[in-house]
From TrEMBL:
Superkingdom: Bacteria
Domain HTH lacI-type: 5-62
Name of this chain's protein: Transcriptional regulator, LacI family
Listed InterPro entries: HTH_LacI (IPR000843), LacI/GalR-like_sensor (IPR046335), Lambda_DNA-bd_dom_sf (IPR010982), Peripla_BP_I (IPR028082)
PANTHER family the UniProt entry points to: HTH-TYPE TRANSCRIPTIONAL REPRESSOR PURR-RELATED (PTHR30146:SF148), LACI-RELATED TRANSCRIPTIONAL REPRESSOR (PTHR30146)
Molecular function GO labels: DNA-binding transcription factor activity; transcription cis-regulatory region binding
Amino acid sequence: MARAPRQADIAAAAGVSQTTVSLVLSGSTDGSRLAEATRQRVLAAAEQLGYVPDPVATRLASSRNRMLGVYTFATAFPTAVDGFYYPILAGIEAEAAALGQDLVLFTGTGGSGERPDHRAAIRRTRIADGCLFFGRHVPEEPIDWLLGDGFPLVYVGRRDELGGRIPFVGVDYVAASAEVVGRLAALGHRQIRYLRCGDDALSSTDREQGVLAALRTARLPVRRVVVRAEAEAVDAGLISRWVADGVTAVVVEETDTGDLSAAALAAVESAGLVCPRDLSLAVLGQPKDRPDVSGFEVPRWELGRRSVRLLVDQITGARRRTDQQLLACRPVPGSTVGAAPTAPRR
């Protein structure tokens, strides 16, 4: 098998020194007296010989190799086209390409037997210039270690762990959720239930905070409003009991799986209720394949794009390492929310 071409081969083909080849291929010719014709001759020789630079050697020489890591704590990347994460990944890919960056995808398996939140698994990301992280929770010890070592990283989603030192691009779920509940209050709803998952992820807590803030602003009761449940516990019986107790609107958290909102919508239908005639229902997010449902749209493509931009700005020193950004959501009026019933329901 023929060996791969080296810089010495390019130097011989272009009739220049190996130092000149190194300068041209590293892009370090600024301030030098190297003629443009010489530079073009070196590039042509490299292309003709099929030269591919060693990324490890390039990193050692320049401290940067234009590779960004993307780390998920799952065992496989969530790449289903109709999944929650797909638009985020598409935004990441689009912005990385626009900035001339390659992507390295890391999963939580790693092939070495460690847990996905173990330092040994996460430290693999250091082969890249910096890394984006996905996950509802933060493994504080390894992330703290990366931050302390000066490694550029950005979380996709708001984080407040580690004393607020984690750079992130997140979504303003507090404001978006408050807007949804404020709309219900303006439509005359006085008895509202908020259905959220049992997980204590920050995105869930932010949504709840927005719901309660809007209720207090409207001078509505907050006691017994929040109900934690998993999807399998949400059925027609639960919804019917709420309606019998005078509940006129239900607000549901939309998680990355969409299971809870799907269960709530199915339960309303099974109970023989029609939205919004019998019950208004809003989702804090946008259920898959249900544009008719009232709620808000999470800017997932922009979330991915802005995360890449922030990471690259970190790597190049254009931004502080502690930069944090929140993106607004677009309200989705839908057709499942209406005025509160004014007459007793049978």
